[in-house]
Amino acid sequence: MTLTDKLTQPVFIDGAWIRPLIQGGKGVGATNGASAGAWAAENAAGTIAAIGAAIGYDKNGREIPYSYTSKTRHGRFEEMLELSIKGCLLQVDMAHAARKDQGRIRINFLKMAGGSTRVMRDVLSATRLPDGTNKIHAVTMGAGLASEEDAQICADSGVYLDPIISSVMALKVLLSRSFKHWKGRYADVIGAVVYEDPWLAGGHNGITSRENPDAPQDPYERVKALRKIMNSNGMQDVAIIMAGGVWYLRDWQDWLENPEIGPIAFQIGTRDLLTKECPISDEWKGLLFEMKEKDVVLNKFSPTGFYSSAYKNGMMRELSDRSKRQVPYAQEFSNSMNEPVEGVGVPVNKYRISPDDKTKVDAWIAQGFSTPIATPDNTIIFVTKEKELEIKSHRAECVGCISTCKLSTWCEDASKKFSTGKRPDPRVHCIRKGLQAAIAGDDLDNALIFSGHNAFMAAGDAFYHGEDGGVFIPTVKQLIERLTTGD
After folding, report:
1. Does residue 241 belong to any structural domain of this protein?
2. Residues 302, 317: contact at Cβ < 8 Å?
C-alpha cells in the first residue's frame, strides 16, 4: 500500500469516518467558519476558533474588532462574552453552510480564556438542530484541562469533547477528574484525543514543571505511551490527533497502521495559514515565507503563565530584553541592599539594590531605561517612560480575555472581587493587544505571531513557488490534495 493509499484511509473521529487530516484550531481571527467549512467539505475536520471569533468583516475582508463601552473591567468582560457568543454563532453558521454535509466541524475553546465554559454552553445550546443533532460535532479544549462541567455540557448537547493534552500525566488527570462518570465508556463523549507536542506546536504549550523546556522529547515515544494508557482504559478505537511539527506527512508514515500508535490523524496548523480561505492578512502570510529555522521561540511571556511559541520579532525581543534588565530590590536599607535607585521620577529611597547591581542599573538608566517597575518576585525591571505608559494602558483597558491575568491581575471569580490579589507582572505581554495587532497586519514586528516551530519550512517548500516566480497560495482543497501525496 502506497503512502497516498494510507493517507486516504478514513479514521473514525467525532462520530464519522473522515480523512486523517485536521485543521489546527488557532484563535483570534486566524481560523474562522469559512476556512473550517472548507476543510470539512473535503471530508476532513475543520476547526473554528471560538476565542475572538469575528462578529463581521469590513469591505476588505478584515474582521471588525470588538469594541467596548463599559468603564469597568467587569463590564467589559460581560461585553466580551456577548461579542464572543455573537461571533461564534456567525462562524458556526458559515462553517455549517460551507461543509456541504461532509466532514466534521469542531470549535476550539481555551480553558484559560475568560468565560469559556459560559460561552461554550450558550453556543452549543443555540446551534442545536431540531433533530437533536448539532451544527458543531466536537469541542476541542486546551490551555488548561477541561472540567467535569465542560464534559457534561458537551454530552448534553450531543457534541464530542476532544481534549488537547501534552503528556500522559495530563490524560490520566483528565480521565480521573473530568470524565470520571464515563469510566469504561470514554468514547461516548471523547471523539479524539489531541496530542499537542509542547516543543513543536505553536501558541500555548503544555510543558509541565517536571519537564525541561530546553530538552525536547521524542513525540513518538510520548504518543506511544499515551496510546498505552488509552488502551488500558478501553479507548483502543479512539483516534489520537498528532499536533505540532507536522509539515510533510511523508515524515510521519511510520506512524500509519502502527499498532504502537493505533488510529492516528494529523493536525495541520501552520500550513493552514497559507491557504486562500485562511482569514489572516496577506502581510502575515508573507511573513511566513521570511521565517528561518529557530525564528520561533519557546517563551514564558504569556500572561496566562503557560509557555508559548511565537515568532521572534521586535515584540518578543523587547520582552526578552525587558526581563534581562531586572535586579532584586528591597524597600528597607540593609548591609547588602544599600544603594538607592536614582531613575527619573523615582521617589528617594523607594528601591534599595546591591552595590553589585548599582553599576548595571546606572548604565540602563543612562541608556534611557530610566523607569523601574516592581514585579511580583521582589525584583524591578527598567523600561522607558513610554513603555511604562503602554504597560499601564494595557492594564487599564483589560477586558478579562483570560480567566486570570498576570499583567492586569484580572480574575473572573466574583468572590475574589475580580482580582488575583497579586502585584501586576510587567514582564508579560497583553495577549489581546498582541493578537489583535497580528490580525490587523499593520505592524507585524510589534504583534504577537503565534507559530509552530516548523514555519521556516514554507520558504523551501516547492509547493508554494508560483509559475511566475512569485508565491503560490493554495486553496484548502489544493492543500489537502498535496498533503495526501505525503508532501
Report:
1. yes
2. no
